Structure prediction request, 550 residues.
Amino acid sequence: MAKVMEKYSKERLSKMSPKEYRSILRRSEWSGVTSTEPWPCAGYAQTNLAIVPEEYAFEFLLFCNRNPRPCPVLDVTDPGDPHPKFLDPEADLRTDLPKYRVFKDGEITDEPTDIIKYWRDDLVSFLLGCSCTFVQALKAANVPFRRYGAYPTKIPCTPAGRFHGHLVVSVRAFYNSHDAVRAVQISSRHLLFHGPPIHIGDPADIGIENLGKPDSFNPNRPVVEPPKTGEIVMCWGCGVTPQMVAMESKIPFMITHRVAHMFIADRLIEELAIL
Amino acid sequence: MAKVMEKYSKERLSKMSPKEYRSILRRSEWSGVTSTEPWPCAGYAQTNLAIVPEEYAFEFLLFCNRNPRPCPVLDVTDPGDPHPKFLDPEADLRTDLPKYRVFKDGEITDEPTDIIKYWRDDLVSFLLGCSCTFVQALKAANVPFRRYGAYPTKIPCTPAGRFHGHLVVSVRAFYNSHDAVRAVQISSRHLLFHGPPIHIGDPADIGIENLGKPDSFNPNRPVVEPPKTGEIVMCWGCGVTPQMVAMESKIPFMITHRVAHMFIADRLIEELAIL
Prediction:
């Protein structure tokens, strides 16, 4: 795999159309992360994926509706249909993500590069907006920030049926008030991609200790310098939340993307702004 | 009833808090329309109501998600729970609207002032934003317009399961471009109350003939003068759409508000703006 992946530098990937990018995923020629610069198919919308059996679909959709900051719904497929027909009808959610995660009874049991063998006629797929999208809007607006990645918080999500668990957030530090205000304004234009931040200030307030250091949630987290005095730290709802919920709620069967290995839709970020 | 209703002039109602207003509804002392000026509890958010059995709840929620302009979801109750615990936990959806509509197999069978006798343990209630809310924002911004009311269109909604039917819109004419642009901007701030218009231009394009005259959809529609040259007519998704859908889809049992007799939540309009 390593050799094939070298064929596609991140620079080359970033200039691809979603259609071309998808074709290399379907040939299993790439399975890398989509969440760091240069982004594959730069300018196109990235989404989280969550798949549950039909029996759980109402409760999960209700969970998303009750928790729109971590779980903004872009598309919900009909049972058994792997094509997100409103967001991107030519996509196949069984093959068109670089990596998946399979949860059984709240445990991660597999991280395959496709989910053909797991597919069932009763599976309902949810595409939920991803912050990789509004981050591209921040870059386009020349708003710099320091990136800290995703952290679980002590904030419980609003439960729905059998779905409950704690909010996961993505954390960024801004260098001054002007940039922080711009980040609130710009992310608010992208309500389908988590919208505005849910917390401004010390992340310890919401249960995030040791910002920028490896922890049990992410033992491989790269070390990042702590925020400096005067910087403004803001936390946004994160699409990893359904994975936390799958684990905390011990949902019998659920498939998601693997963290940072997102679906890329054939829709420009600005097509979906202020919607 | 008429005598009691006189006790509460529209002017007096407009100054009431939602709590006080609710108390007169619970005593069956008022059952008028909420959709015209002066609005009861002016400044507070008005919503549409749709109630379906749990068996239909996933498909209806999906219908709303796929048709967010007519059906923006503010709250969904747990089965059997008449209290919208996220939007307004002290409200009781069985009594706190001035008038309801009961649909059986797509026919209107009753228009009661409460739904106590229809209540069941498997009913799930949906509160959907109403344009009476952004209209108050237009007035607050001094944007005048001519009001035409609600019309069915030839635009099919995106179906979900057993729910299908045509989009209903509310129609307004603006006197110049500046006002029309302001109306797009201001309604876009209220995404939970139908957001921006879905059509700009001749309403005949979307199947609306005889604008401003009584028709089979509304035989009692007041006559309103037609738009003049240079005026801009705009149409917004309307919360009557679920009633059209109940009829077209022949849903076995569904309860809604009676048209123009909305629920008023104990939440200020601006509390829910840009959310």
User: Anything to note?
Assistant: Residues 54-66 of chain A form the longest helix (13 residues). Residues 40-130+246-270 of chain A form a domain with the PSTPO5379-like fold (CATH 3.40.1640.10). The CA atoms of residues 83 and 230 of chain A lie 47 Å apart. Chain A has two domains: 40-130+246-270, 134-243.
